[in-house]
Amino acid sequence: MGGCVVADATSKQLIPSVTCMAVIDVVEGSAMEALSGMLNFCRNRPSEFKTVEDAISWSIKSGTIRNHKSARVSIPCLLTEQETCTNIKKYTWRTDLAVAQPHWKGWFSGLSEKFLSSSAAKLLILAGTDRLDKPLTIAQMQGKYQLMVLPEAGHMVQEDMPERTATALVDFWKRNEKLVLPVKKPFVVDK
To answer: For the chain, which residues make up each domain, given as ranges?
Structure first.
């Protein structure tokens, strides 16, 4: 969801100092198509777990995250521990995704145009090229942004391929880092 926020903010020039931005596995066309399935995902996702390990196992079995090591790091942060009236611990999701459902369409509508209209250098990291919509395909052919495809990853690209994602982000940032040039001092000849 962060990609939607940064694309919107940079397209409106709300943060003028942004020199580059990266969006990870979110494209307007495929996101809009997937919204109907998102409610089913929310309904079918367990609302609670007996242990954190159960939640990690579910995330791997469901395909939400494919990298077990990443799931062990990320999933616990998404949970909150609660005690029942019988002093039994359970773990529930920190965020109820379904509550945000009325806003989903607005987040993704116009995303490709916002992403492409930004003056910042752009990197789009995807799990597959099938996710590209027409405007992004054309813009990529025109060299308007850098595209990186990691077909071994699922939707949680940064979780499934953390090293490759991190390397791509750091390399992209270094290539687009704002240069700070030294102040030129006037040359004075002593007489």
So the answer is: 2-44+100-175
Cα torsion at 96, 102, 103, 108 (round to 10°)?
A: 110
pLDDT tens, 19-46?
A: 899 999 888 888 888 888 888 888 889 9
Span 2-44+100-175 CATH architecture: 3-Layer(aba) Sandwich (3.40)
With 80 as the cut, is the pLDDT of residue 186 above it?
no
Please tell me the number of Cα atoms within 13 Å of 91 on its side-chain side.
14
Rounded CA separation 56/153 (Å): 17
Q: What is the pTM of this model?
A: 0.82
Distance (Å, rounded) from C-alpha 67 to C-alpha 156?
A: 9
Burial of 3 (0-12, 13-18, 19+ CB in 10 A): buried
**Which residues, at least 6 apart from 15, have a Cβ–Cβ distance to it below 8 Å?**
9
Query: Are residues 150 and 156 in contact, defined by beta-carbon separation less than 8 angstroms?
Result: no
**Confidence tier at 85 by pLDDT (50, 70, 90):** confident
